[in-house]
Amino acid sequence: MAVRLGWQAVINVAFGVGCFLLAWAVFQRFCEREIEGPGAATRAVASVMVNSMGVRLRGPRVPRPWRDALAWKDFYFLWGGRVGFIIRTLAYGGALAFDGWGVATQGTAFATYSFGVQSFPLMSLAFSIDLSVMAARVFRTELRDQTFSTLAMLPCGVRDIVHRKVWGCFLAAAPGAFCSLGIQILFLAFVPDSTLSGTNMSTHTIWGIQVATSWLGRVFVIVLIAWLSLYMKRGALPAGWFLSFVASTLVSIIAMLILTATSFAFMRGSPVLIVYGLPAITAIVGLFVSWILYVQGVQRLQSLAGEE
């Protein structure tokens, strides 16, 4: 008796296998620090036993440093180097290739219709989590290891150090950014276009505004998490997500009240001002707060470098 597997089963199995391989790949990197305390002896004995069995623990050879040594250091020793880059490319590129295959065979991107409930939000969520982890670790790791004061002795300012470390994060996150943008382009290209009731605005315009707003929202979230990591030893990532959700909700409510009170857009049956004004106000406030957190974060790093 032949058993036919639906798309749901295939997707669930593929996602489970992908999560297993990803956890396997990053386990050693997140657990590479020595354990202090009573467990240290046990770990040392286990290490001796593994070495006595002839197992090679040496990882892949790290290439020579780039001209920008700080970006090279973070890229290889924080974000997985070439192995991490390949894993991200395969994981994010798989979703993009799946949607591209849907366009080639079905004429529509799966992220637009049946697969969109899972693939498009899941891809966006995975990329946001990846960026959030980078933001939480990029400076906290240096502060935890008390190495930032050494970096501050380099012949460049703290602001330049921040920019170089952020550049290393950008290189590691490039596959996710490229593939996320590719899926969004497929979505905008193949979503059915129509005109919003009571206006001459197309749904493509509305979706394009939402896509642009989502990228600006990511900028605010990662800046907030990086800023919180300068004050919190643990928990900067969940705290940043929670605070960004609360802040975006409050700003949206206040902006909606202001726009409704000043233009009565809903009463006139013309939501054009709401469609344009609400994302614009949210983006302006988010960018302004992000700039303030960036300036204050650089000052915080300067003071922490002096304390170490």
Mean pLDDT: 75
Distance between the termini: 70 Å
Q: Considering DSSP H and I runs of 4 or more, what fraction of the residues is helical?
A: over 70%
Spatial shape: globular
Radius of gyration: 23 Å
Overall number of structural domains: 1
Query: Secondary-structure element sequence?
Result: HHHHHHHHHHH
Q: Percent of residues in beta strands?
A: under 5%
Outline the biggest β-sheet.
none
Poorly predicted parts: 34-58, 111-119
Query: Counting H and I runs of at least 4 residues, what is the number of helices?
Result: 11
Q: From the helix content, strand content and strand pairing, which structural class follows?
A: mainly alpha
Number of strands: 0
Keywords: Membrane, Transmembrane, Transmembrane helix
Transmembrane segments: 6-27, 76-98, 118-139, 169-191, 211-230, 242-267, 273-294
Keyword list:
mainly alpha, membrane, 308 residues, globular
Commentary on this structure:
- The protein has about 300 residues and is mostly helical.
- It has eleven helices and no strands.
- Helix 3 (about 70-75) packs across helix 8, helix 4 (about 80-105) runs parallel beside helix 8 and helix 5 (about 120-135) runs parallel beside helix 9.
- It has one domain (about 75-305).
- It is globular and about 60 Å long.
- The protein starts with 6 loop residues before the first helix and ends with a helix.
- The longest helix has about 35 residues, at about 270-305.
- Keywords: Membrane, Transmembrane, Transmembrane helix.
